[in-house]
Design brief:
The protein is an alpha+beta fold. It has a single domain, classed as Aminopeptidase. It contains six helices and eight strands. Strand 3 and strand 4 form a beta hairpin. The longest helix is centred in the middle third of the chain and has 16 residues. The N and C termini lie far apart (34 Å). The relative contact order is 0.16.
């Protein structure tokens, strides 16, 4: 596995591992977390989670050619959430979540900023996108704080809700990010 590790003042972002399964099951077993995510079923499926974590870990073996990459977010040695890049061979889209007990403490803004810095330092991408459900103001605020600009309202499939939910698509250019937007 790649030795990628992104450190911030309070966090470490690192490749996923199957050893994260129990923590993922605990944090994503909270409907208030799961309902804001497109690809997470509720209730959380342990076997599907194990397979997803294994695939996510394996992608880091050849990250430059991966379509998707995930990073676990650790605080004080404990996993508290996750960050992902999707569509890396096109315009990357980001996704992120935190366990509910970690909400409102600035962790996600710190993690997203670090992950986007890594993307722009290690790839030639000039733009990154983020879609967050319209009824998820916390995720929308993270994107806005980092300089993402609204470009469209879109439909977002939600496994946990069993349907399509209205979402806001935002985008951030490399230039805006590097210039502090």
């Amino acid at each position: 596995m790649s030795g990628v590790e992104i450190k911030t003042e309070r966090l470490v972002l690192r490749p996923p591992s199957v050893q994260d399964l129990a923590c993922c099951a605990d944090l994503l077993g909270d409907y208030e977390v799961a309902k804001m995510l497109s690809r997470v079923p509720y209730p959380y499926d342990l076997e599907a989670g194990r397979q997803k974590l294994q695939r996510a870990a394996d992608r880091w073996n050849d990250w430059k050619n991966a379509e998707d990459l995930g990073l676990q977010i650790d605080h004080d040695g404990e996993m508290i959430g996750s960050f992902s890049f999707k569509k890396l061979q096109d315009t990357p889209e980001i996704g992120y979540w935190l366990g509910r007990s970690y909400w409102g403490r600035g962790f996600m803004s710190e993690a997203v900023k670090a992950a986007i810095s890594w993307l722009f330092e290690n790839t030639s991408h000039t733009r990154v996108a983020c879609e967050a459900m319209k009824d998820n103001p916390a995720s929308l605020n993270v994107a806005e704080k980092l300089g993402f600009q609204k470009v469209a309202e879109v439909g977002c499939a939600s496994l946990s809700r069993g349907g399509t939910i209205l979402a806001i698509r935002t985008e951030l250019t490399r230039e805006a990010f590097l210039n502090g937007h």
